[in-house]
Amino acid sequence: MKELQSTTRDIARELARKYSTMTHEELDTLESILVPRKVSKGETILKEGDVCDSIYYMDKGLVRQFYFKNDKELTEHIGADGEIFMCIESLFKEEPTKLQVEALEPCSLYLIPKHRLEQVALHNVNIQILYRKILEESLIISQIHADLLRFETAQNRYLRLCKMNPQVILRAPLVYIASYLQMTPETLSRVRAATL
């Protein structure tokens, strides 16, 4: 059976359900600024040096945000279905990002262009609330990840990720999960074996 594709209206409803209640007119406005984009597995969504000008909502798929340090790739974030992602510093400073975003699976994305979102938020309180809650969620996710790395043991980092985002554990390559949790693939294999 063929899977039904989401429409921009479906995505507008999902965003409203998750972040803010909206009138039909506000849903129409939000729907009008959404930009659908299909991405193939392995495709670069944002590369280092690009300016991130949108917030991305992932209807379906898996992505990772990463950067290079001392010629090593370090994974900053792994996101799955129903999640928001962005390069927040680039988005707000309107400067080139140091991060890259790559599709780990074929992805169905909806871009929310920042300038359009800010324009419509000026006239729609519920869209302002949605914008604020998306940013709050992004900051909280970043803080949780930072605290995980600072305060938790390798085993607890893995167990917390299993609980917070089981889809990442099931679908992302182990090398990226290990990088995200700041451990070697060998350490991750030992931790996984110890938790079974």
From TrEMBL:
SMART domains: cNMP
SUPFAM superfamilies: cAMP-binding domain-like
Pfam family, one: cNMP_binding
Lineage per the UniProt record: Bacteria, Pseudomonadati, Bacteroidota, Bacteroidia, Bacteroidales
Domain Cyclic nucleotide-binding, residue spans: 18-120
InterPro entries: cNMP-bd_dom, cNMP-bd_dom_sf, RmlC-like_jellyroll
Protein known as: Putative transcriptional regulator, Crp/Fnr family
